[in-house]
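Dear colleague,

Thank you for sharing your sequence with our group. We've completed the structure prediction you requested, and as agreed, I am returning the results in plain text so they can be pasted directly into your records. Please verify that the sequence below matches your submission; if there's any discrepancy, let me know and we will rerun it promptly.
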Amino acid sequence: MLRIPEIQEKVAKYFGVRPKSMKGKKRVRNIARPRQVAMYLCRKCTNKSFTQIAEQFNRDHTTIIHGCQTIDSLIKTDAELADDVNRLILLCQQDQAKE
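Please find the predicted structure tokens below.
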């Protein structure tokens, strides 16, 4: 099973941001969007609760819920983001298969 820090690192590398920014306070879009994608993937690719995910992002569980809902909504209208999320899900599944 993938761990949350592994997903955070994978998403940070994919989007070209520092892994530290996954836990940071900055809200600029080029950091916030990858962070939300990481939150979404943590929910989809692990069996962790919103609270457990929130602890790894230094956030409240309601922030994780909002981030997941945001990405879920955006992938329906933003084809580029949907492709990014699907690629990352495949990468996560490949890593899970290696274990």
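Summary note from our side: The chain has a mean pLDDT of 95.

Kind regards,
the structure core
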